[in-house]
Give the backbone structure.
Amino acid sequence: MNHVRNFFDCVKTRETAVAGPDVMHRSMGTVHAANICMWLKRDLKYDPVKEEFVNDAEANRFLTRAQREPWIY
């Protein structure tokens, strides 16, 4: 199925796309977790419910960007 065409059609009609927001959120979370494993050059355990790495502060730092003052997370 052509996801790009489906996306543009959904923008016009306001219908839900084949790969809706929940599916894409989970899919991209997996891709980001794989990239972090590649950057750190080691295997990691990822908890998809909490959306964080288990017992790994270094890996979890990659999940968000540092906020500048006066903004806080």
Summary: The beta strands are 46-47, 52-53. The longest helix spans residues 21-40. The chain has a mean pLDDT of 90. The longest strand covers residues 46-47.
